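step=encode ok
step=design start
structure_in=
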């Protein structure tokens, strides 16, 4: 009787990592470029700290001083004495956090609708949203101010919060992530199980795009925190000033105290640095987790 035993196929050996190849190691010039990019990006912030801790002599001395001093507490005390800086920080925190949270939710809802729902005029409406991104923000200041004035919101925080609760970039950002990471098969299976559109968004779509939503919230928070033009137009009372308007009040009519301005700018940037220190690792981890899942 002939032997009909078939030999089991031999598994191919796994490719070994070549330390000399392109994927095996990182070239030395890559580190040089990364270090150079970090230095160029961080130096203005570092020099702002140097001037704030030394004084105006850090700029006027020859050569300019590049190491920090010990005058930061004194300059910070002058900043807090000149303007209600703590209250301004609190106002900026309230405005930025509210806009970031609500904007992420509204933009995610709109992005889900444009990406996964079928309704008449969907593509035309999305095109109109994209077209608004081509309009400079300065052109909308006058009609926006007229609307806020008619509502009686001038010199109130809602005059800053409400117009920023949704934006075209956020809708486009969330729509693209919804379209690329939430599959139609997954939504179809949820429909068969009896889920409504809201349940699909809350239980399936939004958890999948949560890393993108977190990045959008961080970008929005930073942009609102640094915004100057619109708060400067609608806010009149010092107790309602955001931190950027408070920095403007540190300037005199015809002169400026460099050390005082740099000290206030450093104090205004410090909360953002603390926030990035706590959430930066989580943001990167969330982006990578979402990328691998996609």
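sequence_out=
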């Amino acid at each position: 009787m002939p032997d009909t035993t078939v030999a089991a196929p031999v598994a191919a050996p796994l490719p070994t990592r070549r330390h000399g190849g392109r994927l095996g190691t990182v070239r030395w010039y890559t580190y040089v470029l990364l270090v150079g990019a970090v230095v160029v990006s961080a130096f203005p912030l570092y020099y702002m700290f140097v001037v704030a801790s030394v004084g105006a002599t850090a700029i006027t001395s020859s050569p300019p001083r590049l190491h920090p001093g010990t005058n930061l507490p004194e300059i910070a005390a002058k900043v807090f004495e000149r303007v209600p800086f703590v209250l301004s920080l609190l106002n900026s925190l309230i405005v930025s956090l509210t806009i970031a949270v609500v904007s992420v939710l509204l933009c995610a809802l709109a992005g889900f609708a444009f990406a996964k729902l079928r309704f008449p005029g969907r593509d035309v409406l999305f095109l109109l949203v994209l077209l608004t991104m081509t309009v400079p923000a300065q052109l909308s200041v006058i009609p926006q101010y007229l609307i806020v004035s008619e509502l009686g919101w001038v010199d109130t925080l809602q005059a800053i919060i409400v117009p920023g609760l949704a934006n075209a970039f956020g809708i486009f950002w969330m729509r693209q992530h919804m379209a690329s990471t939430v599959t139609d098969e997954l939504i179809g299976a949820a429909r068969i199980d009896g889920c409504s559109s809201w349940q699909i968004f809350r239980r399936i779509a939004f958890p999948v795009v949560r890393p993108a939503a977190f990045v959008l919230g961080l970008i929005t928070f930073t942009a609102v925190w640094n915004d100057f033009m619109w708060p400067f137009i609608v806010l009149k009372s010092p107790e309602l000033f955001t931190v950027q308007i408070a920095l403007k009040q540190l300037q005199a009519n015809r002169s400026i105290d460099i050390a005082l301005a740099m000290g206030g700018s450093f104090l205004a940037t410090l909360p953002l640095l603390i926030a990035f220190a706590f959430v930066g690792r989580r943001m990167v981890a969330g982006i990578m987790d979402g990328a691998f899942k996609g």
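step=design ok
step=annotate ok -> The longest helix spans residues 258-293.
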